[in-house]
């Protein structure tokens, strides 16, 4: 084709080429902007009596630009932050004994309500204790033979009566999604400087290796029982001297024990995949604890993350500070003892939202279920975490407000979800948002005021308007 022929051809087909180019540009632009049609909405609020109430679907409307003066939760689905490991509670002896004394039909109903990933709260990350804690009916260990450095008398037979059957029932109800981490409250008294499990004390240096071996024995015996361990914490509340089982580790003592004994022992025994977490206490000094461990490269290589609680102050910025300083490490909230009241429920919602927004990878409360006395327990225990109570005289199970509040997160934010940017222009609302592995987004919004308030969720130039009851918690899924 010569030049004059080409010009003639181009003139005849120029309009067609322009139309094709325009269509290609339009399709590309459309594909870059996601379109959301509607969101499924759930609400919990004392003022309306709604408990994880499904209120149906609400349609998105176009909105180019949010107004600063109208309460707006703004979500960005193009950027992701931390991966969510899961949500759940604790298999203590108190929970297992209470559960074990329920009629079979009530047991089945409880397991479905808490662990079923479709029809229940979908708990998929839970804690258990290495031998007894304050929420045990009696004090015991897996090896009470003094001086047994080789742990020849180690046995988890005690757990076969109540705890292991409950855990296995939960595993079945969860349809294979449930994972566990374990925490010790104290080594056996014969390993400690005060010769008892209560009232603090420290691990005697001559038993460092024996105590590390004890962890391995525990994991192996639970594996034989069909219960694999996903993770461990080194010591529950490592700076708290309690009237119940407790043991003191300073930051350097914990770091040295991990570096020289526990970490190497886990690895030598083929357990390098077990997620090892330090601290396991309040947010207040968690940065100092993390700094001591993570700035020692030999200790740090064994540590997956930092575990923390809420009992003294809020200090949410400390959670973020640990992440910012050590972004390769993880953060799990591991214990929330609370009342079964509405006030506790609102505090629970606030804490979960702000911990997730400050890089927590998961959130686990305390006892899964307690009896009508908020027990059984053998020592202390002011905070029963009575999210669920069972009256063992009647067999009736009561699901308290925190149970439904927790479900706003655990039901809709799945394992493997990633947190995404979620901001609020109103001091009256806080919120968090995650995108699940299937692409669905869950936004959880808390109304901090005790009056009804209007607001909206904005994403990709689209908006859903909502009205929140006083102190209401709303989850939107789209």
Would you mind describing this structure in some detail?
The protein has eleven helices and 22 strands. Helix 7 runs parallel beside helix 9. The chain is α/β, with parallel strands linked by helices and 478 residues long. 47% of the residues are buried. The longest helix is centred in the first third of the chain and has 30 residues, at 3-32. A hairpin with a 2-residue loop joins strand 20 (453-459) and strand 21. It has helices spanning 3-32, 93-100, 104-115, 163-173, 208-224, 251-268, 286-294, 297-300, 316-325, 342-357, 401-410, and strands at residues 38-45, 50-59, 61-62, 72-75, 86-91, 125-130, 179-184, 231-233, 275-282, 305-309, 330-335, 362-367, 370-371, 388-391, 396-399, 418-420, 422-424, 429-435, 441-447, 453-459, 462-468, 473-477. The chain is 30% helix and 25% strand. The strands form four sheets. An eight-stranded parallel barrel has the order 5-6-7-8-9-10-11-12, surrounded by six helices. It has two domains: 37-81 and 420-477, Golgi alpha-mannosidase II (Immunoglobulin-like), CATH 2.60.40.1180; 86-415, Alpha-Beta Barrel (TIM Barrel).
How would the blueprint of this fold be written?
Elements: H1 3-32, E1 38-45, E2 50-59, E3 61-62, E4 72-75, E5 86-91, H2 93-100, H3 104-115, E6 125-130, H4 163-173, E7 179-184, H5 208-224, E8 231-233, H6 251-268, E9 275-282, H7 286-294, H8 297-300, E10 305-309, H9 316-325, E11 330-335, H10 342-357, E12 362-367, E13 370-371, E14 388-391, E15 396-399, H11 401-410, E16 418-420, E17 422-424, E18 429-435, E19 441-447, E20 453-459, E21 462-468, E22 473-477
Parallel strand pairs: 4-20, 5-6, 5-12, 6-7, 7-8, 8-9, 9-10, 10-11, 11-12, 13-14
Antiparallel strand pairs: 1-2, 1-22, 3-21, 4-17, 14-15, 16-18, 18-19, 19-22, 20-21
Helix pairs in contact: 2-4, 3-4, 5-6, 6-7, 7-9, 10-11
